[in-house]
Amino acid sequence: MGEEGAKSVRCAHCGDLLEVSFPGWKTSSGMRAGGLDSVGLKQLWLQRRTSSKALDESGVWRFREILPALHDWNNVITLREGNTPLYELPSCGRAAGVEHLYAKHQGMNPTGSFKDTGMTAAASFAKQGGFRWVACASTGNTSASMAAYAARAGMRSLVLIPQGQITWGKLSQALDYGAVTCQLKTDFDGCMRVLDEVVQRMPVYLLNSVNPYRLEGQKTVAVELMERFDWQPPDHIIVPGGNLGNSSAIGKALLEMKQLGLITKLPKLSVIQAEGANALVRTIRETGGKKLISVHAETMATAIKIGSPASWKKAVRVIEATGGAVEQVSEVEMALAKAEIGADGIGCEPASAVTLAGLKKLVKQGFVKKGESVVLVLTGNLLKDPDFTLKFHRGDLFAGTEHEEEAAVVLGPRQRAPMVLDASANAVVKVLEYAEQNDPRK
Ligand code: F0G
Q1: pTM > 0.90
Q2: Which of 213, 131, 123, 135 is nearest to 174 (CA)?
Q3: How many A from CA of 44 to the centre of ligand 1?
């Protein structure tokens, strides 16, 4: 396959993997990977879906011709990540005003978030490098994923999280998978600063999203998506933005696929942030993407509560290269969108829902047209943050905040608080009759 002997070029300053080259991989048009042309690659990747080899069952390593190569494929640490479902979102599409709306649900990965596709790659390289310890700062999903993959690899993991600012579901995962978990009295950006110092002083391998192998692994979601669309790209891909690793990775994948001749046009890649954690939106609007504007992040979507996104430069580059947009959404808009995604029988965590809320705005602005096809990348599973969902349905989410009145009007009709009843069939039947008479879908 020509996988051995792959070379990578690193940035001298940040250590980022800038370009990965393989024997037979040329950077001009007519580019080949693993010695295969685009037709050969498509066939090979599809064939692997019928294989029961661990490497092929992984939706990441199935595409190994466009990933950096390990010395020994036996070092791959995989939980069979990737190969996630693409769902149609009919009622969300109606709410947003587009005819062809889909969700690529990365929350259906083994640890419940998109992080697994990058983590399988980075953990495998950490193991190959002989590291005993891996570490990350996290808003919860990276740490859950890292802890799982480290455990599978027989490595120890160190997690730094902002105290009281990650969900119980995510925290409990890190503990279950055996991570040494430190809740620091700071925010995510503060955790990153502390971690930077720790890695200077101790032989631990950094697994934050600036890790180049994580970005490489995360590219595969875009490849999977194009394969699912039979290599005819949708018009738009919309992702939530936090530290901006995901958008950078997806953008890199799109550009590489175009170079390889796997696709002939680029979908527009747009990034949506919470209004209270809108560093990228401000950076692009106020400086044209030239200088990072850091913010003090505040949002209930704890996953993207990040004020100084590490990969902002890369994100700016890929948004520009694909002709995408940036947008921000309010907390109420995000909560409504999350309920709408749930009502389509899909569900996701709050951070993922900014994609639908942002899409509505992009449609109103005319950036996304009614007849265009749109894919929302849902990054985290509904069960990651049950507290948010319960508060939403009990009507507590915005209690005592400046949004209380607006929330009651906008979200009220969607709230379904759980009921406490006497243990009698009569009581249940009454509820059922009432629900039937008041079915909003009638
Ligand atoms: N959605 C979810 C569910 C996330 O957990 C994150 C990031 C994002 C979106 C944003 O992705 O950072 O690549 O722009 N979570 C990281 C973490 C920061 O530590 O779990 P991004």
Answers
A1: yes
A2: 135
A3: 31
